[in-house]
């Protein structure tokens, strides 16, 4: 009979990722690059919101985008065509989220020198991306009106880690039983500090406010 | 949904510890998983067999999961209660000023090696 030995570990499986993420943040601070982690469900309008936002910022600061998806490169192409900025596609190989190591690999493929703002469009999913710190300087998420105002109650972790919650597709509010005040109340129950910005990415309504917030954060980070 | 990713994390950490201890095989991994960690033990077990079979060091390795109950503390009345049953609102005084004491752990507790 082979001898079995027990080794006590008592280590969180997220510990390494958290450390990686902190290191990445420190490196970005030194380089003066602001990394935004943008999360949402599939189909909430992340890419359209980004195009609108980037077109408001690209004359003021240099922006680059990393699109993370399980497969395809439609988002990276869409961004490049609509804004003209540098945009790359990351494939997660079936994984439902990005971690700090994958984010770092993506950043290595961007021409970071001279870039002020790097945006990571995370995999569309409200569960897993919230668990893994990507090393981003700020987290933002988009909740779209058709998803319903009760989502902050159902996915509390996602709402509690985000600095900004963008509520998209407000133009279709009359067709859905979406209660904006309730939604804000639920978000602030989970995260009193979260900034809530209602927008319509299709018409551009409200996007100025999101772009202004982002620009102010980038400037603060670079100081 | 993210259980497979977590299994990859576990395998990476276990391999590291096994290498440090010069082990030839890992026969068992004991995980401590919180009730409100969002990790579903059944899904973890499903991914486990598939992923560990691909690692020589861990082929046939048994996964044991110990559950840590979710317990929340109420700042207003100072009482503790079960998170799974009552969520974020204190059942004793109705306050929302509560925080999780434990129950969100995803920890490798120990491993059995040969």
Quaternary structure type: heterodimer
What's the arrangement of strands in the largest beta sheet of chain A?
Answer: 4-3-5-2-6-7-8
Q: Number of helical segments of chain A?
A: 9
Number of strands of chain B: 6
Helix count from the secondary structure assignment of chain B: 3
Question: Radius of gyration of chain A, rounded?
Answer: 18 Å
- What is the percentage of strand-forming residues of chain A? 15-25%
Q: Estimate the mean pLDDT confidence of chain B.
A: 92
Q: How would you state the average pLDDT of chain A, rounded?
A: 92
- Structural class of chain A, by secondary structure, is alpha/beta
Structural class of chain B: alpha+beta
- Report the sheet-strand fraction of chain B: 25-35%
Q: Which pair of chains has the greatest number of interface residues, and how are they split between the two chains?
A: A-B, 28 and 26 residues
Q: State the helicity of chain A in percent bands.
A: 25-40%
Contiguous uncertain segments of 5+ residues of chain A: none
The 3D shape of chain B can be described as elongated
Taken in chain order, the helices and strands of chain A follow as: EHEHEHEHEHEHHEHEH
Q: Main β-sheet of chain B: number of strands, strand sense, barrel status? A: 3 strands, mixed
Output the radius of gyration of chain B.
17 Å
Biggest β-sheet of chain A, characterized? 7 strands, parallel
Note the gap between the termini of chain B: 32 Å
């Amino acid at each position: 009979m082979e001898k079995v030995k027990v080794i006590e570990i008592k280590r969180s499986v997220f510990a390494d990722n958290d450390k990686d993420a902190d290191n990445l943040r420190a490196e970005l601070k030194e380089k003066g690059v602001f990394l935004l982690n943008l999360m949402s469900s599939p189909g909430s309008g992340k890419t359209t919101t980004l195009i609108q936002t980037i077109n408001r910022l690209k004359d003021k600061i240099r922006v680059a985008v990393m699109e993370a998806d399980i497969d395809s490169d439609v988002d990276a192409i869409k961004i490049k065509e609509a804004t003209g900025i540098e945009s790359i596609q990351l494939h997660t190989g079936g994984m439902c989220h990005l971690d700090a190591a994958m984010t770092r690999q993506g950043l290595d493929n961007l021409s970071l020198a001279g870039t002020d703002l790097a945006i990571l469009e995370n995999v569309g999913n409200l569960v897993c991306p919230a668990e893994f710190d990507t090393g981003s300087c700020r987290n933002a998420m988009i909740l779209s009106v058709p998803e319903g105002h009760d989502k902050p109650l159902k996915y509390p972790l996602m709402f509690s880690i985000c600095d900004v919650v963008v509520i998209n597709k407000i133009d279709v509010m009359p067709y859905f039983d979406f209660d904006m005040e309730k939604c804000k109340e639920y978000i602030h129950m989970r995260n009193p500090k979260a900034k809530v910005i209602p927008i319509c990415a299709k018409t551009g309504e409200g996007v100025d406010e999101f772009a202004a917030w982002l620009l102010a954060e980038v400037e603060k980070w670079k100081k | 949904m993210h259980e497979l990713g977590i299994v990859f994390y576990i395998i990476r950490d276990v391999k590291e510890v096994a290498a440090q201890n010069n082990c030839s095989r890992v026969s068992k991994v004991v995980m401590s998983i919180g009730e409100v960690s969002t990790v579903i033990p059944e899904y973890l077990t499903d991914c486990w067999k598939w992923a560990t079979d691909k690692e020589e060091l861990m082929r046939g390795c048994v996964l044991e999961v110990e559950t840590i109950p979710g317990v929340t503390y109420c700042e207003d009345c100072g009482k503790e209660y079960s998170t799974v049953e009552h969520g974020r609102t204190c059942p004793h005084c109705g306050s929302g000023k509560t925080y999780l004491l434990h129950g969100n752990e995803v920890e490798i507790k120990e491993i059995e090696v040969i």
